[in-house]
TrEMBL record:
UniProt-annotated location(s): Cell membrane
Family of this protein: Belongs to the cation transport ATPase (P-type) (TC 3.A.3) family. Type IIA subfamily.
PROSITE patterns reported in the protein's UniProt record: ATPASE_E1_E2 (PS00154)
Protein's name according to its UniProt entry: Cation-translocating P-type ATPase
GO BP terms, alphabetized: export from cell; inorganic cation transmembrane transport
Xref: Gene3D superfamilies: Calcium-transporting ATPase, cytoplasmic domain N, Calcium-transporting ATPase, cytoplasmic transduction domain A, Calcium-transporting ATPase, transmembrane domain, HAD superfamily/HAD-like
Organism: Candidatus Pelethenecus faecipullorum
Family matches, as InterPro entries: ATPase_P-typ_cation-transptr_C, ATPase_P-typ_cation-transptr_N, ATPase_P-typ_cyto_dom_N, ATPase_P-typ_P_site, ATPase_P-typ_TM_dom_sf, ATPase_P-typ_transduc_dom_A_sf, ATPase_P-type_domA, HAD-like_sf
Membrane as UniProt keyword: yes
Length: 859
């Protein structure tokens, strides 16, 4: 039950006439808190840095590095290289997260930096963050409201609460006491709420809640209940990492035993096992994935999408449901006149001079204003009236010469507004308002009235908001008491908050890409359905449902029938979260777009939340994973394409890097196995230093090139990936294994040639090193696309070409440069052995070209 004004005044020790004193301000701030939302505590740089090491493969590498130093302190090069690479990867991750946070901070803006209050018997302007419970505030058209308050007195007050409720039509307010229990938010017509703004009229109010106790604060608090969960890519790469880690440990143990059986002492056997661990773990994978995602973030920022966390890039690319707010996201958040009626229903492009004059009369009878202040256009007033001013301006009509001699303001009971002007020696009373009220009092012929009623119904069916115009003519200035009794009906205007021009095409593209768009709004179901039909969201057989109807559905029923509904109207924040959860239980990957405070909990709950950068509230931006800087729904489609391309590139990188690791493991394992079961003693074909160099330098540079590949043209024709789809779907695991076996066999062959034919263990290791690294450099062109390596398409990626050349240059450096080759225990090769290595390296290219040729023929 609401408290009465005198009770609030007494409870808060306030005075509606004189406001709070300095002493009372201090007491109330201490008792009720500050007017600020609690920000989620951000991790410091050190914590962010440590979080980068929360990975199974990184942990195994670090353990291997430490053990290697403990066993043989003099050979610390491998350990240092491991540590340097891991630290570089961690720094990259921290740098990107900080960069995203700074971009978000730049987007944040104060919604209401100052407020007018009465304090110490005086009217003053203060920072909104300094408001306290009990303050007496004054608001008028154009003002933002910075705290929850109870209205003391008001005149023609209307408030836009779309940021809080999603309702696009302003709410008419009053100061009357409401004698009800559990009053719904939408029915609290005698209250003002933080983050809303006044569209018309003025009011005095007493602040009742500030900060986290406001309606916004309560919604912001709901965000803390949502826990961050790993994205699909994070989950899949984590699974790959754990699998590789387990296999590495098992193989290391097997090789350790084999080496002991082969006669090696335990230290040398352990060093071989460490080499195998280094070979098994794709050290460059974490860094490559981080940088590929960072490249995607950079591309997306140029397309007006700021990503707060790297893994969010691919999630949008895999989503199959987009739940979108209507007002300001799918629509322009700007009421616009679409139709007029005098004798016929017409579009604006077909109007004659008489019909344009009618629109001028509508504009004259408005309290809204469009002003140019210091070169900046300010729009003050009710959106409906602003739409009437806009259409009049578009026709070049100047109404500034008309002087308003008498006004009867609009109120929700009369549903009328009247303005008296002087024109052509006559006094003209112009009345605009609800069609049913004006038509019931007009003096026109019955047939004309009936035709107007029919036109009103036609526009209403299309979800247009309709206003009627009536005129009375007098020889002298009339008394207000005789106005609004009878009219000559002049015409109707129909307006709506129209869909954004680019959204319909974006939704069609989304549909082609297998993504379903769902509208979730606080607006009326008729309006929502009309916009949804126009945009292609509400298709034949789909249903629209209101919050009241949704409340009557059990969770089980909603979960089973969630696919039936495309439009949700009059929804509350809890409804949005419930809808997102129901889709997620259908194994959907859900994206949620929105700009208002009411969207924040669902933005947090969704697999990826997309907040609006311009119209979005700070709360929604904080909850989101991505900020759409231009508030453009179409930006989502660009993000989807980029996300899908990035995911495909990451799969290519994984294929490329893991096939190399399997080749390395197979080389060392087969050498150990042959030594253990035969009279031959092969030794270790590759040292840990060789493997680290290949994994971190030779492999990583081309992998970055693969990551920079543009998305394939067909990527938006593919269906979204299933949440259950294995990362190794489409026989990726089989392909990695086969390619790894080929790499391993070629590398071991090169080693055996050098070891036995040249009778030099060091030459054998050098040939194995060159063959392995060269195979990977050539193989990068195999992996990057389905095109032949001999096609022009294969060489469009300039970064890949540069990486290839740098990779070969570095191999020559470590093999042929004196001093450096000593560090790596490598020897210069003669032309014969060099050509053998090149021939073995090209075997993979020949095999892959044959496979690609066969695949193309099958298509």
């Amino acid at each position: 039950m609401q408290k009465k004004l005198y009770e609030l005044e007494r409870e808060f020790k306030s005075d509606v006439q004189n406001g709070l004193t300095d002493e009372q301000i201090a007491e109330n701030r201490e008792q009720y808190g500050k007017n600020a939302l609690e920000e989620k505590k951000k991790a410091n740089l050190f914590v962010k840095f440590l979080m980068q090491f929360n990975d199974v493969l990184i942990i195994i590498l670090l353990i291997a590095a430490v053990i290697s130093v403990v066993i043989e302190p003099s050979e610390f090069v491998d350990s240092i290289i491991i540590l340097v690479v891991v630290i570089i990867n961690a720094i990259l991750g921290v740098f990107q997260e900080n960069k995203a946070e700074k971009s978000l901070e730049a987007l944040k803006k104060m919604s209401s930096p100052t407020s007018k209050v009465i304090r110490n018997h005086s009217l003053m302007t203060i920072d909104s963050k300094d408001l306290v419970v009990g303050d007496i505030i004054l608001v008028e058209a154009g003002d933002s409201i910075s705290a929850d308050a109870r209205i003391i007195e008001c005149t023609n007050l209307s408030v836009d609460e779309s940021a809080l409720t999603g309702e696009s039509v302003p709410v008419h307010k009053h100061n009357e006491y409401i004698e009800k229990e559990d009053i719904p938010l939408g029915d609290m017509k005698n209250c003002l709420f933080s983050s809303t703004y006044v569209t018309n009229g003025k009011a005095k109010a007493i602040v009742t809640n500030v900060g986290m106790a406001t309606q916004i604060g309560r919604i912001a608090g709901m965000l803390n209940e949502q826990k961050d969960v790993a994205t699909p890519l994070q989950q899949k790469l984590a699974t790959v990492g754990k699998l590789i880690g387990i296999m590495a440990l098992i193989i290391c143990a097997v090789v350790f035993v084999l080496e002991m059986i082969g006669g090696l002492n335990w230290i040398d056997a352990f060093k071989t096992a460490i080499a195998l661990a280094v070979a098994a773990i794709p050290e460059g994978l974490a860094t490559v994935v981080t940088i590929v995602l960072a490249i995607g973030v950079s591309k997306m920022s140029k397309q007006n999408a700021i990503v707060k966390k790297l893994p969010a890039v691919e999630t949008l690319g895999s989503c199959n449901v987009v739940c979108s707010d209507k007002t300001g996201t799918l629509t322009q958040n700007k009421m616009t006149v679409m139709k007029i009626y005098q004798t016929n229903l017409k579009d604006l492009k077909d109007l004659d001079e008489k019909e344009r004059q009618m629109l001028s009369y509508f504009a004259i009878c408005c309290d809204a204003a469009i002003q140019n202040k210091n070169g900046k256009i300010e729009r003050i007033g009710d959106p409906t009236e602003l739409a009437l001013l806009d259409v009049n301006i578009s026709f070049g009509k100047d109404i500034s010469s008309y002087k308003r001699l008498l006004d009867i303001p609009f109120d929700s009971e009369r549903k009328l507004m009247t303005t008296v002007i002087q024109e052509n020696g006559k006094y003209l009373a112009i009345t605009k308002g609800a069609p049913d009220v004006i038509l019931s009092r007009c003096t026109n012929a019955a047939k004309e009235v009936q035709q107007a009623i029919s036109a009103n119904e036609q526009m209403a069916k299309k979800a247009l908001r309709v206003l009627a115009l009536g005129i009375q003519s007098f020889d002298s200035l009339p008394d207000a008491a005789i106005l609004e009794q009878s009219f000559t009906f002049v015409g109707l205007v129909g307006m709506i908050d129209p869909a954004r021009l680019e959204v319909k095409d974006s939704i069609a593209l989304a549909k082609e890409a297998g993504i379903r768009t769902i509208m979730i709004t606080g607006d009326h179901i008729v309006t929502a359905s009309a916009i949804a039909e126009e945009l292609g969201i509400l298709r034949e057989g789909d249903k629209a449902i209101t919050s009241t109807e949704l409340d009557q559905l059990s969770d089980d029923y909603l979960n089973d029938h969630i696919e039936d509904y495309s439009v949700y109207a009059r929804v509350a924040p809890k409804d949005k979260v419930r809808i997102v959860e129901a889709w997620q239980k259908k194994e959907a990957i859900v994206a949620m777009t929105g700009d208002g405070v009411n969207d924040a909990p669902a933005l947090k709950k969704a697999d990826i939340g997309c907040a609006m950068g311009i119209t979005g509230t700070d709360v929604s931006k904080e909850a989101a994973d991505m900020i759409l800087v231009d508030d453009n729904f179409a930006t989502i489609i660009s993000a989807v394409k980029e996300g899908r391309g990035i995911y495909n590139n990451i799969k290519k990188c994984v294929k490329y890097l893991l096939s190399s690791n399997i080749g390395e493991v197979l080389t060392i394992f087969l050498a150990s196995f042959i030594s253990a079961v035969s009279p031959l003693t092969l030794g270790v074909p590759l040292l840990p230093t060789h493997l680290l160099w290949i994994n971190l330098i030779t492999d990583s540079l081309p992998a970055f090139g693969i990551g920079m590949e543009e998305a394939e043209d067909s990527v938006m024709s593919e269906q979204p990936r299933s949440k259950k789809e294995s990362f190794f779907a489409d026989k990726l695991g089989f392909k990695i294994a086969v390619e790894g076996i080929i790499i391993g066999l070629m590398t071991l062959t090169a080693y055996i040639i050098g070891h036995f034919i040249e009778h030099s263990h060091e030459i054998g290791q050098t040939m194995a090193f060159l063959t392995l690294s060269s195979t990977q450099l050539f193989h990068a062109y195999n992996v990057k696309s389905n095109h032949s390596v001999f096609s022009k398409y294969s060489y469009k990626n300039k970064f890949m070409n540069i990486a290839f050349l740098i990779g070969f240059a570095l191999q020559f450096l470590v093999i042929y440069c004196p001093g450096i080759n000593d560090i790596f225990n490598l020897s210069p090769l003669g032309i014969g052995n060099f050509m053998i290595c090149m021939g073995l390296s090209l075997v993979m290219v020949v095999i892959m070209e044959i496979v690609k040729f066969v695949n193309r023929r099958q298509l």
